[in-house]
Each structure stands twice: as C-alpha cells, then as structure tokens.
From TrEMBL:
PANTHER family hit by this protein: METHYLTHIOADENOSINE/PURINE NUCLEOSIDE PHOSPHORYLASE, PURINE NUCLEOSIDE PHOSPHORYLASE-RELATED
GO biological process terms held by the UniProt record: nucleoside metabolic process
Protein name: Purine nucleoside phosphorylase
Pathway: Purine metabolism; purine nucleoside salvage
Keyword Nucleotide-binding: no
GO CC list: cytoplasm
Pfam families for this protein: PNP_UDP_1
Molecular functions per Gene Ontology: purine-nucleoside phosphorylase activity
Keywords (A to Z) from UniProt: Glycosyltransferase, Transferase
Main enzyme class: transferase
Family according to the record: Belongs to the PNP/MTAP phosphorylase family.
Superkingdom classification of source: Bacteria
C-alpha cells in the first residue's frame, strides 16, 4: 500500500475539533488496549465514548478482541483517553493510518502513553499469562510510520530511538510489581507484519536476533509517540509460548482468552502507575 501521506494537517484539526466539541475536556494520559485487554474498562468511570466509525478520518478496527472505540474516562480521579482497540498494518492500513489516532491525541494535549498488547513469548523462561515490561523494540515491519514528507509540527525528521521508552516510568512499574508480588518479566519486543503466527524457523530467527516476545503492533505506536515527545510505557501480556511445550497449535481466540485472564495483573500495574 502506498501510504506516503494518508492524512493532512487539516484532517488532524478536523478530528481534534470533533473530539473537543463532543468531549468538552481532554486528558494528558492515553492508554492503548491490545487484544483481549479490555478488562481495564471495568475499572473506569466512562465520561464519553466514540465508536471509531463516527470519528472523522479514523480507521475502523476489524480484529476480534478489539472493541473499536475511543473513550474519555476517569480512574482514581485521573482523566484518560482510552483507545479500546487499535489498528494494524495487516488489516490493510498504511502506517500513517495505524498511528493517526496518536497524532490526534498529541494535538489534544496527551503527554504520556501506555501501550499494551498480547504477544507470543520467545524467551524460553516465559509462560502464557506472564506480563513483560518492554524495554526495547526491534522492527521487522516493512514500513515506518514516519515515512514520507515530515511535518516539523509533529516532531523531528530523524528522532533518536536509542531510548524510546521512559526509563523512570519503567523502573516505577518494576517497583510496583515487586510490591504486588507479581513476577514481572522484561525484554525486547519484536514487531512483525502478521497476521499469520510465526513458523518454527522464524521463531528461532527472532530469538537469535534478541527478541523476548513477538507481536503485530506496538512498534509503530512507540516510534510515532517518541517522535512527538510523548513519554511511553509499554507492556506485553504473554498469551502463548512461541516455543510451545507441546505440539498444540494456538488460535487467535485462545490468545484473546489468555489475555483476558492475565489482564488482572496488567490492570493492577497500570492503575498503580498512572502519572
């Protein structure tokens, strides 16, 4: 897909105006919920919700386990934007469409972003149901969300990606995990195209290049948010072992089901560490 410029500054302004006019207020923190991780919604006070289809210029989520709505909510008196479902390159969207909501959220005043996902475990020490703090990423995606003419109002042409995830925020989450008694893992997330799950040879390759978990999202969002100066915290729920202890095959529905069960830990960690 040719996606050098799938939106204009006027498009962004139109989307922002729509959300401002219909939400009344905004928030400085946003959360992206991955497959099966909508449990957090049960812990929020919903102030306003927008189906993606009603927001000007937004794509529409087509994946099972993604509700497909942007929500203004409060949790412990903290106001948040929640992306309940995200967009993926494998759905047929270009990279600039995948990250379009983040561009909008930045213009709405978001300064902090929590990105969550369901991922396959590459590290032999990981088991289904583990939570992994993402400390770095590897992109094997065929395109970059910054490709095309750069608009300096959104960030620099060549952002430094040596530390795209906020180290102080990550350290805070590690401390919280110890206090909660959770065995929090940490590692490198590899972003791939999907939608097929990986072959055995690909799994071996991903381990060799340094991956601890693999998934089909998150990396474009981290790149885009970091370019715009947004602080980023990223967490994976390990929903299946990419090095299975049996010959059993995994389905997306099972991935969503495991994410839902493990989401309790994720909710605790997110609630305890909101700015």
């Amino acid at each position: 897909m040719t996606d050098v410029k799938a939106f204009s500054w006027d498009d962004l302004q139109e989307t922002c105006d729509f959300l401002k006019n219909h939400s009344g207020e905004t928030a400085k923190t946003a959360i992206v919920l991955g497959s099966g991780l909508g449990l957090l919604m049960d812990h929020l006070t919903i102030l306003k919700r927008f189906a993606y289809g009603e927001i000007p210029h937004f794509p529409i989520s087509t994946v099972v386990g993604h509700s497909g709505e942007l929500v203004m909510a409060e949790i412990d008196s903290k106001r948040l934007w929640i992306m309940n479902g995200r967009f993926h390159y494998y759905e047929g969207y270009g990279m600039s469409q995948v990250v379009y909501p983040l561009r909008v959220l930045k213009l709405l005043g978001v300064e902090n972003l929590v990105v969550t996902n369901a991922a396959g475990g590459l590290n032999a020490d990981f088991e289904a149901g583990d939570i992994m703090l993402i400390e770095d990423v590897i992109s094997l995606l065929p395109a970059n969300p910054l490709r095309g003419k750069n608009d300096n109002r959104l960030g620099p042409r060549f952002p430094d990606m040596s530390a795209p995830l906020d180290e102080q925020w990550s350290a805070q989450v590690k401390e919280s995990a110890l206090e909660l008694g959770y065995n929090l893992k940490s590692g490198v997330y590899v972003g791939v195209t999907g939608p097929n799950l990986e072959t055995k040879a690909e799994i071996n390759y991903l381990r060799i290049i340094g991956g601890d978990a693999v998934g089909m999202s998150t990396v474009p969002e981290i790149i885009c948010a970091h370019q715009m100066g947004i602080r980023v915290l990223a967490i994976s729920v390990i929903t299946n072992e990419s090095i299975p202890k049996s010959a059993k095959e995994f389905t997306h529905e099972e991935v969503v089901e495991v994410a839902g069960r493990a989401g309790v830990k994720l909710v605790d960690l997110v609630k305890s560490n909101l700015p």
